[in-house]
TrEMBL record:
It holds the Pfam family GGDEF. Residues 518-651 form the GGDEF domain. Its EC number is 2.7.7.65. One of its GO terms (molecular function) is diguanylate cyclase activity. This is diguanylate cyclase. Keywords: Membrane, Nucleotidyltransferase, Transferase, Transmembrane, Transmembrane helix.
Length: 651
């Protein structure tokens, strides 16, 4: 009786923690669904410990249904049931019932699933309760140790939520282990071997899930950065194009050698205004900084005629063209007409004596320009901002349910520090993120559970019938097969399947083992214009290029006693112990020439494929691997910026 009271108390304490930590409040109404699932689970387990089977099955069954629905939001392909479909089911509910808010991290969800099914199966060893509780234990440990960034488009496991959820699962788990302990101690010999094997497979699956989740996050991060860079490039190109057009416009008036009449101004300015429909206006300013001509000259633009700019905006760079005869450019400013924009001032000179006749002002409204550059992101999947020195001036796109991270990309414009910010929405992350990590984890756990049942039942039958020899042979064969499978999984976890080279993880392990062999040289090789190869020749041909480059690069590196690994995408990384800087540079040049000599056609340059190499060398301990890789990466960036197909060495 005392034992049952202790177990019930643990379940009730878990129930109280869930209520206190997840009680719906303003802005957190979606916690109600999770709270319902957890309270039903705690009540069902408490009823089980009290040995009220019917009530326990009722509560646990209802909790299991909610649990499976939440798991389906992670596993079902987007083409089957998309994020928009889930949103349609939740849109009429009061509060912020978005898909990213209603579901906990997948590890917690799987842990609750394991506890619920274990209780429904009456915690019997023959039904695999030992492996279920072991899997829940491993899931809980990984949930406590995993980076919060792996929780994409779900509740972030951090802060009070982390304490609430992990405490809830821990208490229910402890109660079930205590309840199972007498039966397990009686039959531990029968359970130990299948438990070790299945637990090992579960651990491998968790590691695979962690790596795949990181890879998937990196993929999404890279793809969103590429989009942001594209928008920034488009903005820069558009503004530079219209600036060059305005330079021609100002040059025309300089050739005329006179200030424009109203009719001439309207006629010529109209054609430029049509080409760049995001102009606020085009204005002519006399030497006294008075606006004498403006196009279009209606509405707010008409109100600026006759305004003396040096009085209205004393800090304007208009003095550059009017006094020095050079261009002047503002950053983002408050326009006289209202709103935010940028202004460029271009001088107009008399060609005969160089007298400054005035200046052409080009006023750009950034909002329509940003809309034009965002044609590729008009599905409300991203929030885009324009800022200067940390001050956000323009925001386009949704303002809520945004991811906790984003990209800040500088825009190359004259005399300004304009920065473009790109932040994806949680809906975009939920729809874009691949389902492979979660499918891998669930499949691996189910296989481990089924394997446990198979081995457990086989051993039980063998012991009952006394066929010790046959049972031992079968078990030995199974262990060999599992060992081979585990070795294969371990090899795959440490190598890149495409190029047969070590992967990032194995490379980092090897570099640490080289920490006592100074000097240590690290190189990062990046294939120039590799995206063009994939776009024009296809990804299969791109894969063949990667294999070829890996093959020609491997021999020189290994002959020097180093290691060559694929670092991701089109990047390879080299580490050579006991390699001075000069020797490393020679080897880097040898690798660069070897790739060039391979003669792989490069459609981007109508030549052959080349690589850019960034190299860094540390002469003595201690080894700061992050700093060394960062230095090599910065050297690679210089090699790219300096024209590619070259070696740059970090200082």
């Amino acid at each position: 009786m005392t034992r049952r009271l202790v177990l019930m108390s643990l379940s009730l304490i878990a129930f109280g923690i869930a209520l206190l930590g997840l009680w719906p409040s303003a802005g957190n109404e979606a916690n109600a669904l999770l709270l319902m699932m957890l309270t039903l689970q705690a009540a069902g387990q408490a009823a089980w410990h009290w040995r009220n089977t019917s009530l326990s099955q009722l509560f646990l069954g209802a909790s299991l249904i909610l649990n499976i629905l939440l798991i389906c939001t992670f596993l079902l392909p987007e083409s089957w049931v998309g994020v928009d479909h889930w949103g349609d089911l939740l849109i009429n509910l009061p509060g912020d019932w978005h898909i990213a808010n209603i579901r906990p991290p997948i590890l917690i969800l799987f842990a609750c699933f394991g506890l619920t099914t274990c209780a429904l199966l009456r915690m019997r060893l023959g039904f695999g309760s030992a492996i279920q509780l072991t899997q829940v234990t491993l899931l809980l440990l990984f949930a406590m140790m995993s980076d919060a960034s792996l929780s994409v488009a779900s509740m972030v496991l951090a802060g009070p939520e982390r304490i609430t959820l992990t405490s809830f699962v821990s208490l229910l788990l402890i109660a079930q282990w205590i309840d199972l302990q007498p039966a397990f101690m009686q039959m531990w010999r029968r359970n130990l071997i299948p438990l070790i094997i299945s637990s090992s497979i579960t651990l491998v699956c968790l590691l695979a899930w962690q790596q795949q989740s990181q890879d998937e996050n990196n993929r999404i991060n890279q793809s969103t950065y590429v989009l942001g860079d594209k928008i920034a490039t488009e903005l820069s190109r558009e503004i530079n194009d219209q600036l060059n057009a305005m330079r021609r416009f100002a040059g025309f008036w300089s050739l005329m050698g006179q200030t424009p009449s109203r009719g001439e101004w309207q006629r010529l300015a109209r054609s430029y205004y049509k080409d760049f429909d995001y102009f606020q206006n085009i204005a002519f300013i006399d030497p006294d900084s008075v606006i004498t001509r403006v196009f279009p000259d209606k509405g707010r633009n008409h109100d600026v005629l006759g305004v003396r700019l040096l009085d209205a905006q004393p800090d304007t760079p208009l003095r550059n063209p009017l006094e020095l005869g050079i261009e002047g450019h503002t950053g983002i400013i408050d326009l006289i007409q209202g709103g935010k924009g940028m202004v460029s001032y271009l001088p107009v000179r008399d060609p005969r004596d160089g007298t400054i006749l005035g200046a052409i002002a080009m006023v750009v409204d950034l909002a329509p320009l940003l809309d034009r550059a965002m044609d590729t992101a008009r599905n409300e999947a991203f929030a885009v901002t324009l800022s200067e020195r940390g001050n956000i001036y323009i925001h386009v796109g949704p303002e809520s349910r945004l991811a906790p991270w984003g990209h800040r990309i500088p825009i190359e414009l004259p005399a300004t520090d304009l920065t473009l910010g790109l932040q994806p929405t949680q809906q975009f992350l939920a729809a874009t993120r691949g389902r492979l990590p979660e499918v891998t984890l669930l499949t691996g756990m189910l296989l481990a559970y089924l394997l446990f049942l198979v081995i457990y039942m086989y051993r039980r039958v063998s012991q009952e019938h006394g066929i010790v020899k046959n049972a031992n042979d079968a078990l030995r064969e199974e262990m060999v097969r599992r060992e081979r499978l585990q070795n294969e999984i371990q090899w795959l976890a440490r190598h890149d399947e495409l190029t047969q080279l070590p992967n990032r993880r194995y490379f980092l392990e090897q570099v640490q083992s080289f920490s006592g062999k100074m000097p240590l040289t690290v190189m990062i090789l990046d294939i120039d214009f590799f995206k063009t190869i994939n776009d024009k020749l296809g990804h299969l041909e791109g894969d063949r290029y990667l294999q070829k480059i890996a093959a020609v690069s491997r021999a020189p590196v290994e002959s020097a006693g180093g290691i060559l690994a694929r670092f991701g995408g089109e990047e390879f990384v080299v580490c050579i112990p006991e390699c001075p800087r000069a020797v490393g540079r020679t080897l880097a040049e040898e690798l660069r020439r070897a790739v060039q000599a391979a003669g792989l056609p490069q459609p981007a340059t109508d030549s052959v494929v080349t690589v850019s190499v960034g190299m860094a060398c540390v002469a003595r301990a201690p080894l700061r691997l992050d700093a060394l890789l960062q230095a090599a990466d910065e050297a690679l960036y210089r090699a790219k910026s300096s024209g590619r197909n070259q070696v740059q060495v970090a200082a």
